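fyi for ur records
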Amino acid sequence: MSDEEKDDIILEVNNLKMYFPTQVSLFKSKPLKAVDDVSFKVKRGETLGIVGESGCGKTTLGRTILHLYEPTSGEVIFEGKEIKKKKDIEMLHLKAQMVFQDPYSSLDPRMTVEDIIAEPIDAHKKVFLEETPGEESYKKKRHDRVIELMNIVGLSSEQATRYPHEFSGGQRQRIGIARALALKPKLIVCDEPVSALDVSIQAQVLNTFSELQKKLELTYLFVAHNLLVVKHISDRIAVMYLGHMVELADSKTLFEEPLHPYTVSLLSAIPVPDPDEAKKNDRISLVGEIPSPLNAPSGCPFRTRCPYATDECALEENKPTLKEIKKGHFVACLHPIIK
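which gave:
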């Protein structure tokens, strides 16, 4: 990789693992493998969508990358620097932020909108003052920045003194977005930011994300389970299953030429608005329940539900890892569906 290509990579994740110790009996504990050996890279200014069923590890991956959870093992490299020490984590939290899933529980009901948006500014007061020259007082600079952020996300400055319960779901999520932008981050992890909103509001918030990305040159990790939402906003899409990344490709390619059986089954479940077209659509129903991360299958994690699984898929030494089958199209499968 050339120096120019390296500079173009804002985030690199190598063999990341996040295991949670769980007590399975009085004297025995066992690790719950929420994220298991995940690797990928994200370019500056792009949106990488991360999809999968509930419980597949999407949210845990985003939180582990931001070191809200301390990784069990693996590397997180942000702007060419591995995040290891406390000062590295502090730097990461200045340049990478998160928009949370639930706009109702992620905002403190006892704080005004101005104080909520200014939380990161108050936490990093010294850095904020260094980057905001001028003779004005901290209180004036803080207020001006909050009003600027409210205008950016489509809120009125008159609403700064109100409390979260006075806003709709969409407006609350805009407050969360404004808070994430407070310190001018370069990377934002969006944890299902529209799943709790009405469909009409979802479109507005998604458009806000797109406009902000162009205006502020942001990079997004967009976690969601709605494939159509991810297709709309993402440049590339990663598919997760049981803590593993099983497929990674650009958005158009993934929808037109999925290679992993799990991805194919996910895409077949997308609702079609035309009843006649829906009848022609062959829905692929997976057999069985998702295995527990406490007792994951040997070999390929998807083999217990895969219609193409063979005996070799069960062998631990054959555990598939992401391989580039076509240019820019990675899949972790011994029997990819190549047409």
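The chain has a mean pLDDT of 90. thats all i got for now
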